[in-house]
Amino acid sequence: MDDTKKINPSKGLVGEIFIPGDKSISHRSVMFSSLGNKPVRITNFLNAQDCMSTVACMRALGIEIEQIGSNELIVHGKGIHGLIEPENVIDSGNSGTTLRLMMGILAPQPFLSTFTGDASLRKRPMGRVIKPLSQMGAKIIARQNSKYLPLTIEPVDKISSIEYKMPMASAQVKSAILLAGMYGDGETIVTEPYTSRDHTERMLETFGVTLRKIGTSIGIKKVEHFESPESIEVPGDISSAAFWLVAASIIPNSNLTLKNVGINPTRTGIIEVLLSMGADIHIVNERFSGKEPVADLVVKSAELKGVEFGAEIMPRLIDEIPVITVAAMFAKGRTIITGAGELRVKETDRLNAITTEFNKFNHCITGTEDGLIIEGPVALKSSQCYSYHDHRIAMALAVAGAAGAGVSIEKASCVNISYPDFYATLDKIGK
Ligand code: S3P
Questions:
Q1: Is residue 333 in some structural domain?
Q2: Which range marks the domain in which residue 49 is found?
Q3: Are strands 187-191 and 139-142 parallel, antiparallel or unpaired?
Q4: Is the pTM of this model over 0.90?
């Protein structure tokens, strides 16, 4: 099957876009509703491959999930002790969030579960989750001395609480520890070097769970039951909106309104960096969707300049580095990104993918051990680039091609992981 997508240069992006549901929040809405005590209606659910991996996983664990139309689910939770032993190996596909959060939920269970995933997920490090969960008494065995998928979680009859200092900022690791901590005997406290996205904490509170926050530490005590809300409305994903924020900024004659975007402060690093580069972005119509802040974003073309940022802001824009690189290629002056070593263990080694593929447009990026140096602005040549089967690399390449002289993307359909309508949306708003 030909999986190549050709993107033409654009003369401007104009219109209004409804941003699809947040991937992180969609995963959590299904997981926590499954552990709840009554049915939950989830609206604006992200119907994309990653989140459907979570749905399939919960179904394999005995949860009935009805799908209504394309973006609505009803999850019939069975309580925090209601999951049952899966009959088969569970496939997490490409989704690190499915796998790592489910490890936290399943580590304390009195039954056996085995996970695998696609070629990308089988290369990603699992030791970062296995280590703290094992300290809590979980019994997890994994390939290559507990590093990689496939992995098996053996039954246990008890989990202990721990105090754990994470070596890296990671919402997936933090969430796995907090979720296992709900089954512990005392208080589990997890500390991060910098605060990563806090959707787990906010949604646990929606389900009646009390957490203790002290700086970058979170404490959770044994949870007796989840008090489900009637419904959860998933905000639009700022990580999907990010492609339009950058595209409209760098393509002249653009004026876009991005409707219903989550602006949780643990995710808004992209807006801060683009504003500091000189972008014309306005946040309007601010409101709340449950415990998550939401707004519409208005973005117009602007002259950008280079910027420097590093480890401190990194967890708040970790998934946006590929598209920020594109902004930097169009910005005047040097952009220096440090503290981005975590990009080496995403869906692909994104630092390598960026330096290899984006330099095909015109050599302007130098990779470092934990970051990138981009010398802008450069004129982009029409190029043939490879996505590495990574959805965010494919979409960032598309933005570069639309803003430059076009691009042909090999293995382009991976956008289905997080944004199935991405190319159709680009066609709709492009001039
Ligand atoms: C996610 C956390 C981040 C992010 C991923 C989604 C989550 O990963 O990159 O796309 O939903 O918790 P890490 O926790 O590994 O940084």
A1: yes
A2: 23-218
A3: unpaired
A4: yes
